[in-house]
Structure prediction request, 308 residues.
Amino acid sequence: MARIAYPLDGVLLFDKPLGLSSNTALQKVRRLFQAEKAGHTGTLDPLATGLLPICFGEATKFSSTLLDADKTYRARVRLGQTTTTGDAEGEIISRSQIEVSEAQLPEVLSRFVGEIRQLPPMYSAIKHQGKPLYEYIRKGETVDRKARSVTIHELVLERFAGEELEMVVRCSKGTYIRTLAEDIGQALGCGAHLLALRRLAIGRFSLEDAYGWERLEHMDKQERETCLLPLDCMLQGLPMLELDNRQVMRIAQGQRLVLEQALPSDRIRLYGAGEFIGVGRLEGNLLVPERLVSKVAKNAAISPIRLE
Prediction:
């Protein structure tokens, strides 16, 4: 019998377990919710656990905001060993004696705070000539890669136990924690690889508010749907603009609105009668629809344009 799927809109903060790829986790959750459409924001490797926001239905239109947001991780690093992949899934390729004291670590870690350059690992999904890099390395091939700039906003040592250290990293999008672990190991003179990784936060969203698989599985359908955050939860950093019914209909038809007042951002959350209808952008004094939900308010109450 074919599985029934329902239209569902919203965002679930999911605590991805160990051993699942992000796509496998997404499909399991989508089937559990019986949702027609779903997508995740920000891939986590099977080795990694933690916060994986899953967007259902209309929420997928606005997920790029989370993809661009800063991330926070707790990383466990093994010193004295390097691997083929930079993490515990690879084969060990070198072993070195560890001559590192805890007193040395703050100074070494401080070198990696701020804007740094990273060489993307071959075991990654970055595309080269249309194919992800991991497809080349699986064939024993390597390709030239260009170092990229990323920003480490905060790097805090939480534990050091001779062969292992644990740290919390808050970083910009595009940061490879595996590569960071390897580079720290090189700076310490002993090599290193990533043992475990847990994502704690994406932007304003925290793992503390996430739901694990077992908890969701034991809920009924109605309880699970109460776990979803509204469509505009990913856009709270943008200013809000309330439109009247006429303006909503014009925006829904792709027309531009002339605004007389200045607004503090080029991108604006748009509402009609208190209901979120999408995102607009400013081109001079013109408000242009950028991305709208499929169903906009039809009976919006007349109200003047105002900025929250």
Remarks:
- The helical segments are 22-33, 64-67, 105-110, 133-138, 177-188, 213-217, 221-225, 245-252.
